[in-house]
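Bumping my old thread because nobody answered last time. Still need a sequence for this structure:
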């Protein structure tokens, strides 16, 4: 880290929350490829926006077109990918925005780091495990990635390659099984959790 830098204080998170009349937080969706993370994240973002909450979706593929285009899929690159996203999500949350992230984020330690960054800043962090049996994910396979991984074309593919395991969350705030629950059910479950915990207060219809 550079030594010739200084942190400049600005408005506090509490002040931003008061002015913008909404809390900032991160909703972290994790799960296998083709589990339905991006679809749920998109629907959740739209639901929040339609209910007058500032929200922004950070998607795994989209981020790799820009911010993280220099990273591959080695364990070290995966860790750095998640570290950067966690820092960006924290900035959104601090700005009193709802950051909705959609990343495989296969390693428990990396997700723990993302949570700790938010905890240190007293910002809510909600982990959502978007689960699906791997055979269902492979049957969906919208990008053809599982087939390429099985054929040896893609190396280090999460859930298939021996060196690329998916470490399931042990205690996520929200658990969703997309082989049994619809996108609408998933959004309702996440919003229900946030409302129950008093994190978000949806306007009356």
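Sorry it took so long. Here it is:
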């Amino acid at each position: 880290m550079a030594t010739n830098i200084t942190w400049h204080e600005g408005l506090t998170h509490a002040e931003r929350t008061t002015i913008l009349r909404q809390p900032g937080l991160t909703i972290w969706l994790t799960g296998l490829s083709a589990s339905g993370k991006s679809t749920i994240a998109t629907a959740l973002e739209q639901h929040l926006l339609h209910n007058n909450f500032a929200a922004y979706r950070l998607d795994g593929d989209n981020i790799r077109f820009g911010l993280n285009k220099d990273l591959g899929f080695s364990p070290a690159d995966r860790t750095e990918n998640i570290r950067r996203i966690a820092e960006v999500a924290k900035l959104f949350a601090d700005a009193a925005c709802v950051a909705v992230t959609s990343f495989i984020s296969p390693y428990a330690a990396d997700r723990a780091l993302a949570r700790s960054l938010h905890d240190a800043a007293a910002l809510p962090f909600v982990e959502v495990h978007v689960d699906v049996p791997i055979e269902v994910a492979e049957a969906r396979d919208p990008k053809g990635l599982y087939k390429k991984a099985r054929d040896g074309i893609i190396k280090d593919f999460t859930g298939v390659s021996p060196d690329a395991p998916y470490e399931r969350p042990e205690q996520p705030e929200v658990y969703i099984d997309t082989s049994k629950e619809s996108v609408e059910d998933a959004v309702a479950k996440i919003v229900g959790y946030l409302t129950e915990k008093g994190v978000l207060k949806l306007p009356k219809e």
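The chain is about 40% helix and 15% strand. Let me know if any region looks off to you.
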